[in-house]
Design a protein that fits this description.
The chain is built from six helices and eight strands. By secondary structure, it is an alpha+beta fold. The model has no long low-confidence stretch (mean pLDDT 92).
């Protein structure tokens, strides 16, 4: 997969399907994505290769005998589902994942290089407003990066 970036707005239909922008789908090798719960009440979408890379690293470092590790495994690994695009280029988001991310109708897809975030549009606006000061601090911490 090449660089996958961009912010796209789209709607979730009454059956829980979202049409993927053609530009974003064009960057994907396969006709399938792995969808799971993310932090900040959104969903993370991965190609099978990126998901295998991330999940194997998590599984190698996590112990089922550690309380915090079990929490991450249950919240990130367990809910992950492989979802295939339909012929119209839509992904059908399972109800449990829609409920977790509070997805209503208007959604935002964010391409973040190796994965995609799927947000409810109003939740994303709230997140941006609430995190503005933290964002400025986090950007300052990247001060050693030159380009």
């Amino acid at each position: 997969m090449s660089l996958l970036t961009g912010e796209y707005r789209n709607t979730l239909d009454e059956k829980g399907r979202i049409l993927f922008p053609s530009k974003m789908r064009g960057e994907l090798k396969d006709n399938v994505l792995i969808v799971t719960q993310a932090l900040d009440r959104c969903l993370w979408l991965f190609t099978p290769e990126e998901w295998e890379n991330l999940s194997s690293k998590i599984m190698q470092s996590a112990s089922p005998f550690n309380t915090k590790n079990r929490l991450v495994l249950r919240r990130l690994i367990a809910p992950a589902q492989e979802i295939e695009f339909d012929k119209a280029g839509r992904l059908s988001i399972p109800q449990s994942l829609r409920e977790y991310a509070l997805l209503e109708k208007d959604c935002i897809l964010l391409g973040i290089n190796k994965y995609i975030e799927l947000w409810d549009a109003s939740a994303y606006r709230s997140y941006l407003e609430e995190s503005e000061s933290s964002y400025r601090e986090a950007a300052e911490d990247l001060g050693s990066i030159n380009f």
